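Office hours follow-up: a student asked to see two folded examples consecutively, so here they are.
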Amino acid sequence: MKRLLAILLGLVTVFTCCFSQPAYAASSSLIRSYDDVKVDGKDFSGQVLQEAEFANTSLKEANFSDAKLQGAVFNACVLVDANFENANFTNGIAYLTNFQRANLKNAIFKEAMLLRSRFEQADITGADFSLAVIDREQQNKLCNRASGVNPVTGVSTKESLNCS
């Protein structure tokens, strides 16, 4: 019995060593992270910020116009008066984030997770929220002022928000 266990253990070791795939760790330099910082008014316009992470960050009046933010994360951020015009936030996450008075004109929020985020007085003209997850109360408020059609996706803001 001991011999059989030793043979099995040897086979497992051989298979593990010879046939296993190497493990690759993700480089932290690939994902830019901005935590607990104040970068009010910073110009991120036109930048590629895919999968960038912002946590507990003050970004008042920051400029993200024309930025590629696919898969980016804003966690508990202040984006009051920020500019997201023509930005692409597809598959992004904004949790507990304040977009008060933000310029979201023609921005793309397709399949974004926007839970517990606020959009009071944000300009959403032409924004596309298709398949985005938004709190019901915020969705209703956005529907009250939704207008325009996104120039890239061709989807109306009202339709993307499933306004009735």
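And the second, which I mentioned at the end of office hours:
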Amino acid sequence: MNQIQLPQAPRLLSPLGWTVFLALLLCVGLLVPALNLWLPVSHPLHMSDFAVSLVGKIMCYAICALAMDLIWGYTGILSLGHGLFFALGGYAMGMYLMRQIGTDGNYKSELPDFMVFLDWKTLPWHWYFSDSFIATLLLVVLAPGLLALVFGYFAFRSRIKGVYFSIITQAMTFAFMLLFFRNETGFGGNNGFTDFKRILGAPIATPNMRMLLFVLTGACLLGCYLAARWLVQSKYGRVLQAIRDAESRVMFSGYSPLPYKLSIWVISAVMCGIAGALYVPQVGIINPSEMSPANSIEIAVWAAVGGRASLIGPIVGAFMVNGAKSWLTVVAPEYWLYVLGALFIAVTLYMPQGVVGLLGNLKKRISSSKGDSV
């Protein structure tokens, strides 16, 4: 009697993939700290503080792009509001950093300077646990997660999809941006939070702390990549891709799309919140402009340029676009938005699979041409 051979579960990474992963981990955890902290500034291999800060910031953006790929590339839901979740995580961390200033502010008060300036006498209720690092870590996850859960439940239950869903998410982030601009909400108004001095009681502006934040960000990005890869290779991930390709057939097969769409939506929002929390202490400021619809659109651009539904593509796209932005905004800042728009149009029309997809197609053509010649 013949036994049925069940298909084996795909490997999380190939041997080459694990080699590259470990090499990147060593680069983030050992090589970059050595080049920045141990080599003198005059050494040709020295990595400057500016370069460390720039790469650390782009790695935070890459986490957002990876989160966008899960919801857009693998589930077919285009969000134009993920900048809101990024900013909420940043504000949660910013509140803790503002409390860490203590009496070292300009007004020598236990209250943050902007509250003293506005003649506030006590902390608002939503600041009560902001002096606890553990509570802050919980808030970094819960603030974007709960908002995504509530919004997603009503949106997905109402079967809002396509361009309508994208417009609603854009309206949501714009509404929160206007709310956070108001001084009476207790989030610093248009200035936001800045002038951070300590984290966990240690000075935040030292080279060692800057490098620690860099290493944590790199490790978090690699960890998010592994977690995302595990998700999309599982049965859960296959259902997500089925929802993307034919949601009605998934329903006829006995699956309810609601819990799948809602859960990946919340996971994606939480990833953006974590990225925002890592971003703020490295950049040194958070304000409502991080919630602007343009920032959310840029996250979608990173995923599209790199290549949707590839996981590695959005990370590549985040580094490519932000690297170009960092260079072009110095050389010709007035042309950056035109370049960004042209890049998005070109990728949509001529490279629908992004840079990673283009490279994959070229590799296939080279292999096929070699096979034909043999």
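Two things to take away from it. The longest strand covers residues 193-194. The chain has one domain: 22-373.
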